[in-house]
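Worked example 2:
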Amino acid sequence: MNYLINSYGIQIPDFDLNILTQREIEVMRRVILPGKEIAYDLNISENTLNSHMVNIRNKTRLMDIRQIVCCSMKKGLIN
């Protein structure tokens, strides 16, 4: 498995964005926002948002929100 290095020198799993659905990528683009705002922006419930977050973690092997944010930034999904 390949890894990305975050700004603190910590390795996080690298992956191809093609393993994610378009909706999961949309969630990753908004991951720095509060959950309620993400759900509102995407017109989904918070439970559905939580399901997307679980799917992202399972598919990517990212362990927590910090890794998801870091990876989203490294992949150019958020600035």
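The helical segments are 22-29, 35-42, 46-60, 65-74. The first strand starts at residue 3 and ends at 5.
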